[in-house]
Amino acid sequence: MAAKAALPARCSRVAWPSRRPTIACAARPHCSCRPVLPRPETPHAPAPDRPALRGWAATLALCAGALLLAAPALAATDREDEADDAPPVPVAPAQPVLVPSPDGALVIDTQARLAWPRCAQGMQWTGATCTGVALRYTYGEAQALVRQRWKDEGVRWRLPRVPELRRLVNRNAQPPSVDPQLFPNAPLEWHWTGTASVNTLSVNPYAYGNVARGGAGESSLSVQQGWAVDMTSGEARGDVGRSTRLPIRLVRPAP
After folding, report:
1. Residue 76 placed within a domain
2. For residues 72 and 54, what is the distance between their CA atoms, to the nearest angstrom?
3. Which end of the chain is more exposed for a tag (fewer CB within 10 A), N or C?
């Protein structure tokens, strides 16, 4: 009987831990023994540098924050540019405080609601200017005239107080004075006022600087003094002797 063909023997995996054949493999001539080589490893891309990534992320975050902070300023700049391009809004002129009445005979103080005659007492308004000569009165004569005109005309004429009369002087003009368009030919000198003197100290009648200081009573000289206003400067004094003759300009409530 013919001998069976020898089948090639397979080497056990444990027979080849290295390239040198083991005894088990050498005892089998039909064994095809080959060294088992390790599988080549697939090369991998190097892992990215994590610190570098963190640096890029921080940079992007800073840029985003800067844009967020700059957005309001950029928007405001755009609005300013638009405002610069817009046409200017016209500013309404300031309303004058002193204006002539419709018939032109009075000057109305629109803030204090007072009415002034265009001319000083004794002068006449012609419709365009003041003519004649301003009369001069002592303080007592001026008060008597006020009472008589109130009785005759039924109009509450009176001597103006110091702050009221000073409003007629334009102290921004050079030199300061009353407006000649509103008060033509006005006497530019001291005028009597209705403000009472309240100087209660002993008064030196020769001292220019004696003025009212306040108090409850009156000294022996205070009843002989009154307040007047210089129509060229707006200065007021309270030590003017009441026997002094000065022009007057009466005042009344605005109609």
Report:
1. no
2. 29
3. N
